[in-house]
Design goal:
This protein is of the alpha/beta class and 314 residues long. Helices cover 34% and strands 11% of the residues. The chain has six helices and five strands, in the order αααβαββββαα. Strands 2-1-3-5-4 form a five-stranded mixed beta sheet, covered by helices on one side. Helix 1 packs antiparallel against helix 2 and helix 4 crosses helix 5. It is globular and about 65 Å long. The two termini are 39 Å apart.
Length: 314
């Protein structure tokens, strides 16, 4: 598009020069030169505007009209989905029964929720239907010491303790189980900076930037018995270790909220899922749980059997 505009400008300039040469040869009228200069510049501007509107408009509409890819691994909680169509048939949208912990939840203070901020996904609600949800937290390799003096807690141990505390906080509202083997976990939490890969959508139109925490999910077909597999998902959370224990715990609390189904952000600082880091991080709020409960009442394709013709998701 830019090349076409550049060539058009060159052609217009060339035509303007020829016109001026002919005008000078015949009359030498200075006013005619000025008129022709203004005419060609105005014409060039109009043509470029028309071409930009007619070319760029359909391109933008075409890009936004593409169906989203279902087999995706997003790079963050508020990310646009890929525009590649899915080649695989998926289960129809259906509603699961509420977990007992959420079914009994009541917000007696009537603080409301931020359900309107939850992102819509091609798979429906990003929720769990098999409980307990198995969570693995990366732990440092420890060695036994025979000395009488206890060693101070290492940064890795402090990180693990802060993250484990965040898991415990969410256990009040959803059944979670800490396990020691990451390959068996539904949610894994790693003591590492978030990977900066260009394969997934980026959090904004700006350049990639370093983030302190990130959650991703991926879909897979879980084989159970001899029947068709179930559409399932698993989550990975990365937490940058170079933070204080308070902020590590707050980041873990926040990212766990995403992994448990809150695929969006709250606009209020008093919620754990507030979109930005603050000096005094909030605990899990009634608004967080009210939103989570509404999410778990929504239809989803997760937890339901794939159609017989569907190829396995890897």
């Amino acid at each position: 598009m830019y090349g076409l505009q550049k060539r058009l400008v060159l052609l217009l300039r060339r035509g303007r020069s020829l016109f001026l040469q002919r005008s000078s040869a015949h009359s030498g009228d200075r006013q005619l030169k000025q008129f022709s200069q203004g005419f060609w510049l105005a014409l060039g501007t109009v043509v470029l505007i028309v071409l930009s509107a007619s070319w760029l408009g359909p391109i933008a509409a075409f890009e936004s009209a593409q169906p989203p890819l279902v087999q995706i691994i997003p790079s963050g909680p508020l990310l646009a989905q890929s525009t590649t169509p899915s080649p695989q048939p998926l289960p129809p949208l259906q509603v699961h029964s509420l977990p007992s912990t959420l079914a009994s939840w009541r917000d007696r203070s009537n603080q409301g929720d931020y359900f309107d901020q939850i992102q819509r996904l091609p798979i429906g609600a990003l929720i769990w239907s098999q409980f307990p949800i198995k969570v693995y937290v990366e732990s440092p390799v420890t060695t036994t010491s025979t000395g009488a003096t206890a060693k101070p807690e290492s940064p890795a141990q402090s990180w693990t303790r802060a993250v484990t505390q965040a898991v415990t906080e969410w256990q009040t509202y959803l059944p979670l189980q800490l396990i020691d083997r990451p390959e068996q976990a539904d949610i894994t939490i790693w003591r590492s900076p978030p990977p900066l890969t260009k394969g997934g959508p980026k959090p904004s139109d700006r350049n990639y930037r370093v983030r302190s925490a990130e959650t991703r999910y991926e879909l897979y077909a879980q084989q159970t018995g001899t029947t068709s597999p179930v559409l399932s998902h698993r989550c990975k959370i990365w937490l940058r270790p170079s933070q204080t224990a308070q902020y590590i715990q707050a980041a873990a609390r926040h990212e766990l909220g995403h992994a448990l189904g809150l695929w969006g952000h709250s606009p209020l600082q008093t919620d754990a899922l507030y979109f930005s880091q603050v000096r005094q991080p909030a605990a899990i709020s009634p608004r967080d749980i009210s939103t989570l409960k509404r999410v778990y009442q929504q239809p989803t394709r997760l937890g339901w059997r794939l159609p017989a013709a569907a190829a396995p998701l890897s």
